[in-house]
Design brief:
The complex is a heterodimer of chains A (about 110) and B (about 110).
Chain A: E1 4-7, E2 10-13, E3 18-25, E4 31-37, E5 44-50, E6 53-57, E7 64-70, E8 73-79, E9 87-94, E10 104-105, E11 109-113
Chain B: E1 4-7, E2 10-14, E3 19-25, E4 32-38, E5 45-51, E6 56-59, E7 62-67, E8 72-77, E9 86-93, E10 97-99, E11 103-108
């Protein structure tokens, strides 16, 4: 079992739907991340939150909207997604946002866009 | 930006033998090099990491070596077991993590 919990595990949505992915960690970590992983590819960074503030946005389309309500929670709000957005969405956390801090991943949400 | 190359893309090893996966990176400023294991349906799991001021690190059957001059680092798994079968990713960090393309390791019983 991982210490980073993601819900739901699977999500199927239409292109006009609005949904949210949730991530929770109770390790006292102050940096949290969203990654996107396509099949047979490595994870790609989307967003970084450090001390609940957005510090990195890797030029992600605005149909993905991150939110960090508190130091333990990270959400990813989805709206008007495209079929190519189907992927595994991974959340990670680390003690701080410095590059040498180990990142710990959840098991992801597998998203399918119809 | 950083670029990480990983080889081989697939590796099949007889149970009990050793497995070696190699990565090279482009940005000499990178100073942290983790290795992740990803099993089917799971997220990446950190298995070992090394920082730029260390040349080698070992944890039971797993070891990582780093050559900063040549900008390459390697994962060594000894006495392989069926549960070692997974996809392995190396990564290099300067500002953010950049992952290699992955190695699918299969342990043959």
């Amino acid at each position: 079992d991982t210490e980073v919990t993601q819900t739901p595990k699977h999500l199927v949505m239409g292109m006009t739907n609005k949904k949210s992915l949730k991530c929770e960690q109770h390790m006292g970590h102050r940096a949290m991340y969203w990654y996107k992983q396509k099949a047979k590819k490595p994870p790609e960074l989307m967003f970084v939150y450090s001390y609940e503030k957005l510090s990195i946005n890797e030029s992600v389309p605005s149909r993905f909207s991150p939110e960090c309500p508190n130091s333990s929670l990270l959400n990813l709000h989805l709206h008007a997604l495209q079929p190519e957005d189907s992927a595994l969405y991974l959340c990670a956390s680390s003690q701080g946002s410095q590059e040498y801090q180990p990142q710990h991943f959840g098991d992801g949400t597998r998203l399918s866009i119809l | 930006g950083e670029n990480v190359e990983q080889h081989p893309s697939t590796l099949s090893v007889q149970e009990g033998d050793s497995a070696v996966i190699k990565c090279t990176y482009s940005d000499s400023a990178s100073n942290y090099f983790p290795w992740y294991k990803q099993e089917l349906g799971k997220g990446p799991q950190l298995i070992i990491d090394i920082r730029s001021n260390v040349g080698e690190k070992k944890d039971q059957r797993i070891a990582v070596t780093l050559n900063k001059t040549a900008k390459h680092f390697s994962l060594h798994i000894t006495e392989t077991q069926p549960e070692d079968s997974a996809v392995y990713f190396c990564a290099a960090a300067w500002g953010k993590l950049t992952f290699g393309t992955g190695t699918r390791l299969t342990i043959i019983p």
